[in-house]
Amino acid sequence: MNSSSESELAFDCDVLVIGAGPVGLTMANLLGRYGVSAFLVEKNASTVTEPRAVSIDDESLRSMQALGLDREVIEGLNLDYGSDYLTPKGHVFASVHPKTREFGFPRRNAFHQPRLETTLRKGLDRFEHIKELFEHELDSLDQDGTGVTAKIVDRSGSFRLVRAKYVAACDGASSHVRESILKTKLEGSTYDQKWIIVDLAETKNKYEHTQVFCNPKRPAISLPGPGGTRRFEFMMKKGESEKEALAPDNLSKMIGDISPDAESERVRTTVYGFHARLAEKWQEGRISLLGDAAHLSPPFAGQGMNAGIRDAFNYAWKLSVVVKKQIPDSLLTSYQAERKPHAQELIRMAIRMGKIMMPKNRVQGILTSTGFRILDLYPPAKNYFTQMKYKPKPRFEKGFFVSDSKPKSITLVGRMFPQPDVETSDGVSCRLDDLLGIDFSLIYLSASDTTAIAPVFLKSNTISLRQICILPQHCVLPESTGVKYTRDHNGQLSEVFKHYRDQVILVRPDRYVALATPQHTDIRAQIESLIADCSFKN
């Protein structure tokens, strides 16, 4: 390093992204779309080649849509599967088959992580301002008042200094940034219980949904994958060694007990433990933790990777508007305020689901299955379970939004806006986000097709706004007046219209609602006030 102070060094990039798993790759693609320069650092020579995470949800697919890669990702998915819970005798006592597409995609989908990561890495080819540094490892970080200087080491031991304005650490469960640089504690539990994972190249089992075998002798899960693949997960018995668990004869017996795949080709077998832990601190200055670096969830809800992708969507747009000086940098402190409570809720849900999957004894298993059968007597309770309404909705208590006066049960503010199919005045049907683009949006919810809406113009140094008016399903679409008119094609927004008729909604780039107000109010002043005050005292 020369004699100049670090604060005087020229910036190599706006953001340094550490780790090229699904979260880091999503982050880099989002920054690419926002026009923010980034270096992506990954210690391995390539993206993963073995199956790991297997479930991608509707919110994550909405993020893929924001990347402009949803079609490519969906090509490699097994879309819209459910879960059946079975007694030790093989009888289904509960089923989860969600049909809602509130956010534009099926709630549960199986994917192949190597293919997903390959798709995301190829997506980076679109952006000259995103530079990949595979086979490079972070050695140290030193931050000051204007940026961060990183020492990056390659396989030969040579190093280079990279100067960035911010760091997004997506470096996984054993995060070097979390443990050695931020030195923040992980709160929560690491469980002694371990599970055996077996991935098959091709399955003979044609069952299209996940099967959860709630057998106290050996709980197990059979998960259908894309392209005729399948994963099995078996709980290890007390006193069983990893060598015993992974013995080929033992694997064949366990698989043969629940599937015709006893001798099918296995592409991966391993043992893993699980965690329910959150980093105490997700941010320090210009450095933030994302994904497994910030939170570790039990696998039973399939939300580990999905929670990390939510982190990336939340943080990337904020970095974008801060780097472009459209919103003060105090906005970045809302990342932990918004994401940490929701990650904790998802971890709690996973723990509850684990208790259903892993009855400690026969009596507990009978009580659990009997309890679910009783739900058949009360359809609303059964629907709550079968449609996955127990999954915590993305909802913020604190963050970059202005609360309205509506009860928590119906308010849109601080929640993800639904994604309906809409129809434009030229007869084109599409999903809403395809019209919203990647910036902030103003959505006018007008109950009348004769309402004249004047577009809102902000000063040139503030945020860009895409403006769309959505009318109810049966309204006539008028000509554009600087605001694009659309119609709620299938009536998916009927509940939204019920509570927000003739209001205007400010939707953030990550599709969360920042404010809602009647159309006759001074919307521009409210937006400018929100941007100017990033104290987050909601």
Model description:
- The protein is α+β, with helices and mostly antiparallel strands.
- 27% of the residues lie in helices and 27% in strands.
- It has helices spanning 22-34, 58-67, 70-74, 113-123, 176-182, 242-245, 248-258, 304-323, 334-357, 362-374, 379-386, 433-436, 494-500, 523-532; strands at 13-18, 38-42, 55-57, 78-79, 83-86, 92-96, 108-110, 130-134, 136-143, 148-154, 159-169, 186-200, 210-213, 220-224, 230-235, 266-279, 283-284, 287-289, 295-296, 421-424, 429-431, 440-445, 465-471, 484-488, 503-507, 513-518.
- Strands 1, 2, 8, 9, 10, 11, 17 and 18 form an eight-stranded mixed sheet that branches. Strands 6-5-13-14-15-12-16-19 form an eight-stranded mixed sheet, sandwiched between helices. Strands 21-20-24-23-22-25-26 form a seven-stranded mixed sheet.
- It is globular.
- It starts with 12 loop residues before the first strand and ends in a 6-residue tail after the last helix.
Give a brief rundown of this model.
The chain has 14 helices and 26 strands. With 538 residues, it is of the alpha+beta class.
